[in-house]
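Appendix C reproduces, verbatim, an entry submitted by the partner laboratory led by Prof. M.T., so that reviewers can inspect both the input and the predicted structure.
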Amino acid sequence: MATADPLTRALASPLAAPESHPSVPPGPPPAHRCEVGDATGRGAPSGRLPRLRIGTHAVSPAALARLSPSPLPAGLVLGADRRRAAVTIRLFRPEPTRVALVGGVWAGQLVAFRALALGARVVVLTTEPTTWAGFGPAALGRAAGRVEVRADDRPVPTDGSPQQPTLIVRDLPSGVTRPTASGAAAPGSWQAELTVLRRLDPGNAPALRDSDLCVLQRLSADESVTAQQALRLPPDSSRFLQVMADDMLSLVGGGADRHLWISQTPVEQHLLGVPRR
């Protein structure tokens, strides 16, 4: 049997699960149950099954309710909240999406890896391509062509579709405002732009205000002050950003500010290592 590629094995492990499962709808089970045996209900010692009767069947509302699928969160799973419920973001939409990530390359690669699990194409724009070297082959194996790492002025792709959206990662080391001369092009439909700010300062703080969503790893004292001013955070939130654990993220924007735990899968731990900034 062929060995599954790393991405397939990552998808086999749930990132987060709700603390409780939907309860079974009340009411008695259906009156007629299907059992192995002949038409009269007696067992079939010959091992044969009775012939199926093809036709229309009436189903009671109670039985239909039992067949209804339970709702699952949609989007890219970032982790789990304190109730162990999955926290997702709708990264790919018909309209462009801008996300600012204050943290290290590790967190940027985690988001990119999970975007690949959604079938996305990933284009990385960076002045330090060595930090992304080998990411595509490690994540996808022979399908590594879905990951591009660029350090030149080639035009940024403007195509995307519901079947294969595009994630553009702008990896900005400290002191760099944009990776390439052509990197200022706006994302298009079914595209998301992830700007990785390795160090937050007043010079790149406008990226937080211009984003649909901000994702924050643990910040230094100076960074938390800058984030508080740019995002208008309360003092308590600013202090918490300085003491978060390595495996935590804070989400600001979209009307749902919250903290979460990353919930790495074993494959992610193998490919990316432990959480760090």
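The radius of gyration is 24 Å. Additional entries are available on request from the coordinating office.
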